[in-house]
Amino acid sequence: MTEINTTTSEENTLHTKGYKLIKFVGEGAYAKVYLTEYVSKDNHKFTLACKIIETSKAPKDFVIKFLPREIDVLIRLNHPHLVHIHSIFQRKTKYYIFMRYSENGDLLGYILKNGCVSENQCRVWMRQLALGLQYLHELEISHRDIKCENILLTANFNVKISDFGFSRFCVDDGDEPVLSETYCGSMSYAAPEILRGKPYLPKPSDLWSLGVVLFVMLNKSMPFDDTRMKKLYEQQMGKKYRFRSRVASLVSLECKTVVKHLLEPDPGLRHNAAQILSSDVGINLLIFLFVALNAVEATALSRAKEERRRLSNTHKNPPKRQGDILEVTNRKSAYR
Questions:
Q1: For the residues of 235-301, what is the DSSP string, one character each?
Q2: Where is the Protein kinase domain (predicted)?
Q3: Distance of alpha carbon 243 from alpha carbon 240, whole angstroms
Q4: Active site (annotated) includes residue 145
Q5: Scanning 23, 148, 274, 313, which has its CA 20 to 30 A from the CA of 285?
Q6: Is 51 annotated as a binding residue?
Q7: CA separation, residue 138 to residues 40, 270, 272 (Å)
C-alpha cells in the first residue's frame, strides 16, 4: 500500500483549506488518488477523492498540452452524470483536484464482481451516460477516453463519467471543427477511425466507445479481439461482434439495435448522443425508462447551450493559473 507522502508544509496548506488526506486508493500514469476528508466552514464533513498530479515527474508533453486542457475542461463542467469537481488548486509542482468520492468503485469492477448487467439496469445507466456525453458535446468538448474504468458508481448506483485527462475542445477560434490527431484512450475502446492513424472527428469516437461500454455491460466481454490492432480493425469494419449464446437470447432486439447504431464503423452514420436519446430512433420507450429530462438535467443542458452560444474564446488561450484554480463550489452534486 502506498503511504501518504506529503510534507508538513503541504499538510498545513491542505488543513487551512479544510482538507485531510486519509488513505491512498489508486494511481494512474502521473497521478495518485487519495480518500480525503473535507470540513466546510460551517463544520460539515464530506468524503472526497483527491487526485494529486506531480508535474515534475510527468512528461513535458503532458504538462504543456494535456494537463492544461484537463484543468480548463474540469472548471467548466457541472452535470449530474459527470464526476462533480469540488475544487482545484496548484501548489508548486503539484495540482490538487478534489472531486466527489464514488463509494461503489468503477463500472469495470462492478461487472467483474457481479457479471453481466441486466438490460433494465443498462437502460438507466446508458441514459445517464448518453446525457453526460450530450452535455459535453454541446460544450464542444470530447472526452476521448470513455471506458468502463472511467465510469464511476455512486452510493445509490448512479453512474458518472470521470477522468478527463485526454479531453479536448472540438472547435477552433473560428468555430470550425478541429480534427484530433492524437491516439487517445484504450485500444479496446478505440473507434476504427482512430486505429487508421489519420486525423479524426473526436465526438463520434466517444459514441463508439459508449457502444463498447454497452456491449461489455450486456455481455461481460469485449466485442472484438484486441490482441492485434490489424485484426481488431478488420473486425470493427466488418461489424464482426457477437453476443455470447447464453446472453443473445436474453437481450432484446431494441437493445441490440442501440449497439448496432453505436458500433457503426462509419463515423458519419454513427448515431450521436441526441439521436440515441431521441424518440425517432424508434427504441426510446424500450431502452430508456425516463425519456423526459428532470430539472437538474434540463438546467445543465440549458447552461451548456447558452455557453456554446457565447462562443467564448477563453478556452482556446487559457490564462496561466497559480494558486486556487477552482475554489470550493456551492454547486450541488446530484444523484447520490
A1: HHHTT-----HHHHTTS-HHHHHHHHHHT-SSTTTS--HHHHHSGGGS-HHHH-S--S--HHHHHHH
A2: 19-289
A3: 10
A4: yes
A5: 148
A6: yes
A7: 33, 17, 11
Q: Which amino acid is at 72?
A: D
Element (H, E) at 231: helix 229-237
| Grid cell at residue 274 | 441526441
DSSP state of 65: I
> Is 141:135 a contact under the CB 8 Å cutoff?
no
Q: Which three cell numbers stand for residue 228?
A: 492485434
Choosing from 72, 145, 163, 206, the catalytic residue is: 145
Task: Render each residue's pLDDT in the chain as its tens digit; 336 residues.
Answer: 567 778 889 899 999 999 999 999 988 878 999 999 999 989 999 999 999 999 999 999 999 999 999 999 999 999 999 999 999 999 999 999 999 999 999 999 999 999 999 999 999 999 999 999 999 999 999 999 999 999 999 999 999 999 999 999 998 878 889 999 988 889 999 999 999 999 999 999 999 999 999 999 999 999 999 999 999 999 999 999 999 998 999 999 989 999 999 999 999 999 999 999 885 554 454 445 455 778 888 888 888 888 777 755 554 555 555 567 667 665 555 545
- Element (H or E) spanning 193, and its range? helix 192-195
Domains 8-100 and 107-296 agree in fold: no
CATH superfamily membership of 8-100: Phosphorylase Kinase; domain 1 (3.30.200.20)
